[in-house]
Amino acid sequence: MTGDAAAGAAVTHPAFAGPDHTPHPLHRDATNDWIDANCYTDLWIELLHGLGLDPHPVLPTALGVDYEGDQWTFFKPPPEDLRALYGIELIELTAYRPLCEHAAAQLRRGHIPILEADAYHLPDAATTYRRAHSKTTIAVVDVDPAARTVRYLHNSGCFAARDEDYDGLFRVGGGTPADGVLPPYLEAAKLSGLWYAGREQSVRVAVDRAVECVSWPGRAAAMDSFLAAFPGDLQAIPRGDLIRFDGYAFATLRQLGAACALGARFLRWLDGAAGLGLGDAATSLDRLSQCAKRLILKAARSVATGRPLDGDDTFADMTTDWRHVGERIRAAAGPAAVSRVEGGRGGAR
Q1: In terms of Cα–Cα distance, which of 263, 188, 204, 214 is closest to 81?
Q2: Domains and CATH numbers, the chain
Q3: pLDDT, position 347
Q4: 3-state secondary structure of 162
């Protein structure tokens, strides 16, 4: 089917043709401190899971977060790891036609379109749905332009939107660049070369990536930098301004905590696969996740009341655990893995 007829036809990616999608166990872990990690990483967990692939090998990116001066790194699975582990090529698309047509065209080729979206139109986004506008990312797995329905991966599951929400997600009648409205960022996961590296190669890639992530220059001092800035950041938020605090907490403590929680689960998977004795490092990450969650509550009270936050003991524990994780991973991986990584980067640390 081609041309206008194809443009309006319903199309579903075969991996998601069933009526239900069961979330990956990473998103069903009742002990997790955070419901989700971040929209992009969570999307890839569910996308790989839906394709029958293990997402654990691309999660060492959670170990490499850094304090960027005003926020912690928004961590993502690197495209080179998606290619090396699964044969997936991630490309940027030019949006020159209606977005629903681009989505349908990619799905017909067996690829998955990944779309920057407004959570205002996502029925699964409980806190923002038809309440507030917020940028997020979805992967479209089924689209029916005639019926104005779409199924998409977002955060920890697969959901559906229709009618006005469909129009909002695909910006139907929402303006063009000529009107001063820029199209959203659009990608496609090309799956024509899909494969799975296998357990042995996946573990080797994961070990090297974990060592690389904890060895980046400045990473060891990231926690010190954040904790030095944190009290001043809180003081700069006007007393009682919890809306501004929520944005700050999401970009800092929540991103840090979610990264640590996911990093702990990655290390436990890697330990089970390679027997590296990383249980204590995973425990340190769990403690960091829990500290970040407690600090959000304490900091919110500080902003609400104007009283200073006393976190010296917590700060000391966070610094100790942060450094321990990096040191333990490098030691457990061994000199050969560290040499491979540092040799590939010209010895930079």
Answers
A1: 204
A2: 3-190 (3.90.70), 199-344 (no CATH)
A3: 46
A4: strand
Report helix, strand or coil for 115: strand
Q: Which two tokens stand for residue 216?
A: 């980046």
CA 299 to chain centre: 24
Mean pLDDT split into 10-residue runs, the chain, 349 residues: 56 92 90 87 97 97 97 97 97 95 97 97 95 96 97 96 97 76 92 92 94 91 97 96 96 97 97 95 98 96 92 92 96 86 61
Q: Is 87 helix (H, G, I), strand (E, B) or coil?
A: coil
By C-alpha distance, which of 137, 176, 173, 135 is closest to 154? 137
Predicted local distance difference test score (pLDDT) of residue 335: 86
Q: What residues contact residue 18 under an 8 Å CB cut-off, 6+ apart?
A: none
Nearest residue to 146 (alpha-carbon basis) of 208, 91, 112, 100: 100
Instruction: Return d(Cα 215, Cα 227) in angstroms, integer.
Output: 20
> What pLDDT does 128 receive?
94
Token couple for 238: 């006007």
pTM: 0.93
CB distance 237 to 244 below 8 Å: yes
Separation of alpha carbons 84 and 31, rounded Å? 31
Q: How far is CA 127 from CA 132, 134, 194, 281, in A?
A: 8, 10, 36, 33
CA distance 282 to 272: 12
Token look-up 């029958």 returns 52
User: CB–CB of 209/345 below 8 Å?
Assistant: no
CB-based contact 270:276 (threshold 8 Å): yes
Helix, strand, or coil (residue 236): helix
DSSP 8-state class, residue 38:
-
